Amino acid sequence: MTTPSDFISQLATKLGRSTPSQTPDPVPIHVPEYRLSGPEERATVFLHNWQALGGKGAIVKSTDETVQCLKEWFGELPLDRPAQQAIVAWDLLPTIAESAFTTLNWPLVRYPQSALDTRERYAIAAQAELGVTGADWGIALSGTVVMNSNPQRGRAVSLLPPRHLTFIETSKLQDNLFEVLEAISATGSPPAAIELITGPSRTSDIEMDLSIGVHGPVEVCVLLIEDELKD
Amino acid sequence: MTMYKEIVEKRVDKALADDFLRKATRRATDRLRLGKFKAAQDLGDWEDWRLAGEAIRTQVVANLDFYLKQLIEQVEKNGGHVHLAKTPVEAVDIVRKLVHEHDAKNVIKSKSMVSEEIHLNSALESEGVSVIETDLGEYIIQVAGEPPSHIIVPAMHKTRQQVADLFEPIAGHTLSSDTPTLTKFVRQEMREKFLHGDIGITGCNFAVANTGSIVMVTNEGNGRMVSTLPRVQITLMGMERIVPSFRELDVLLNLLGRSATGQRLSSYTTILTPPKHSSDSDGPEEFHLVILDHNRSEILGDTTFRRALNCIRCGACFNVCPVYRQIGGHAYGSVYAGPIGSVITPLLEKDWDKWGHLPYFSTLCGACTEGCPVRIPLHDLLVKLRARKTLSGHTPQIEKRIFQGYRYMFTHEKRLRQALRMGAHLQRPFVKHERIVGGPPPLSNWTKSRTLPMVASKSFMQMWSELKLSEKSSNSDPIQ
């Protein structure tokens, strides 16, 4: 195997100079970034784009509204029986989400604490009907929810169950991807995983025929929690 | 040489005779091309984005040594391991060793063009390791034992019935050929494999130099499975697949999703900075990044072709290429097909005998250049590759003879006159409706699929001398 210093110095030779010791100047970027007028438009555009991809979405202001929505979307599922462990969730969800699940008496299995063994945790998430997460950012232009990994969360929650529900405060919505990447950069070193999720799992690999839910969630839902809006 | 030539012709003839393939290729490329066109519109001036993409890629490639060094340091700082491979054989050995060290029996893979380039699957399978492609399209062609026919939609050439026939022996029962049934079968089949994979192998769309992050752009979710569930993650990347920081990533992700599939962002755009943190509840505990050179450094040192390294593997050039649209990917014979494949394959593989046909799989119309989101002058590079091939002496004998003959004739007026007269005479048996429709070899290579204009009964040189004569005779009465 080639050592890193040999590998790098061969490239420098090909480039006809020695390897720069300072970070090269970044290139100037002049692109027309997508901008919206304010929080209301941002929420509307986000929902529109999310739904256009086949996702379910609604804006909620209170626990009652959240309960109504959850009943409407998932009322048919056997989510109220503790033995079935039908809902896996992060350790901590936004307050409105927590109180809505308590009101409904739908027990949540907290994924990080669900089992000591990793494979057992996977099995629990894989047999659940619904995975529930929060989100760190949303992107209006593409209809995307963005979530960082951390010990109180779990990447499998938004991946293994056939349905994924995200709670996101409207104040976390951004216009475009650039703003989100900038915010991630500002937090210093990135977490092990940042998932940008834009609609359900999809494929067009068989005769270009769109098919939903080949590996990841078949159904994706977002509840936008109207909080103090950013301007 | 002749042998390869025959193989190439056979492949092309096979593709041209395959009606489904040609229909499917048109359908896929039309869909993707129009999708791109629509998605490009909501970005404002698409040309501004292309210019930015070009500038970013050019700057990265020009400083590739710096950014690679930074990437290696960052990955190691994050707790990952970096392996550098000069050749495909070295890259395969690195992966093979890792698989043995972990005593892995089940390897699950998400899409990686580099793994196709180094022929990884066959190497691992020959040692009894089960390697499962988990992307639906890749899985279909893995079961069929074929290479990808399109960089984004690898099994585009298969009918749904063919897919059902391929899956039935695995399912152990009959499958109807509707898409939901086939997709559902794959979902069930793959679930167990995901949950029990020992090692996950992924590709890499971009590596972020200043954070040591790997960015994967996928739609099915298999890329997330492969990089979340197994204990060990191995990521394969070509050494040029770098962005300096998240700032540049914005531009390239916006260009890639739109150019590849007409999406603003793919369903899953995943930014990984592995391994998992010790108290995270999932994610790989161990991370290996394998960085492949495979003559990319030669391309880097070649200022004529360096720009070919700017490619972001979106496949947009495939979808606009009139040659690709007629014959699909398999006729090229290479892992990378389409215009970009025709440029990089001869440079990566360095074998004119085997790959010298590729620069000619082009009409030089320039649609690829116009379609490229990072403005690689693909058609121009194809012309330059043809010149490179000719200068290296790899022109077929027959072509050399033709050009010798051409020079012999066109450098002497008398010979040319004679040849034209002879041509006008000799063409007679082959003329139909004022076009030449046949002839002896090598002319027949052309006329078997196209016609030629007739040699005029009176040549321009003849007409010119006659005109001069008539001028002279009317000189006494010049036209005012």
Principal-axes geometry of chain A comes out as globular
Number of domains of chain B: 3
β-sheet strand percentage of chain A: 15-25%
The span between the termini of chain A is: 54 Å
Q: What's the quaternary structure here?
A: heterodimer
CATH top-level class of chain A: Alpha Beta
Radius of gyration of chain B: 27 Å
Rounded mean pLDDT of chain B is 94
CATH topology term of the largest domain in chain B: Rossmann fold
Helix-strand sequence of chain A? HHEHEHEHEEEEEHEEEE
Name the beta content range of chain B: 5-15%
Computed structural class of chain A: alpha/beta
The overall strand count of chain B is: 13
Helix count of chain A? Answer: 6
Can you say what the CATH homologous superfamily of the largest domain in chain B is? NagB/RpiA/CoA transferase-like
Structural summary, described in words:
The complex is a heterodimer of chains A (231) and B (480). By secondary structure, chain A is an alpha/beta fold. Chain A is 29% helix and 20% strand. Chain A contains six helices and twelve strands. In chain A, the strands form three sheets. Chain A has a six-stranded parallel beta sheet with strand order 1-12-7-4-2-3, sandwiched between helices. Chain A has a four-stranded mixed beta sheet with strand order 8-5-6-9. In chain A, strands 10-11 form a two-stranded antiparallel sheet. By secondary structure, chain B is α/β, with parallel strands linked by helices. Chain B has three domains: 135 residues, Orthogonal Bundle (Fumarate Reductase Iron-sulfur Protein, Chain B, domain 2), CATH 1.10.1060; 250 residues, Rossmann fold, CATH 3.40.50.10420; 57 residues, no CATH class. Chain B has a six-stranded parallel beta sheet, sandwiched between helices. Chain B is elongated and about 100 Å long.
SSE inventory with pairings:
The complex is a heterodimer of chains A (231) and B (480).
Chain A: H1 4-15, H2 39-52, E1 56-60, H3 63-74, E2 87-89, H4 95-104, E3 109-110, H5 118-127, E4 130-133, E5 137-139, E6 144-148, E7 163-169, E8 173-174, H6 177-186, E9 193-197, E10 202-203, E11 211-212, E12 219-225
Chain B: H1 2-17, H2 19-41, H3 46-62, H4 64-77, E1 81-85, H5 88-101, E2 106-109, H6 113-117, H7 120-125, E3 130-133, H8 136-144, H9 160-171, H10 179-196, E4 199-202, E5 206-208, E6 213-218, H11 222-228, E7 232-238, E8 242-243, H12 246-261, E9 268-272, E10 286-292, H13 296-300, H14 316-320, H15 322-327, H16 338-349, H17 352-355, H18 367-371, H19 378-391, H20 397-410, H21 413-426, E11 431-432, E12 435-436, H22 443-447, E13 452-453, H23 460-473
Parallel strand pairs in B: 1-10, 2-3, 2-4, 4-7, 5-8, 7-10
Antiparallel strand pairs in B: 5-6, 6-9, 11-12, 12-13
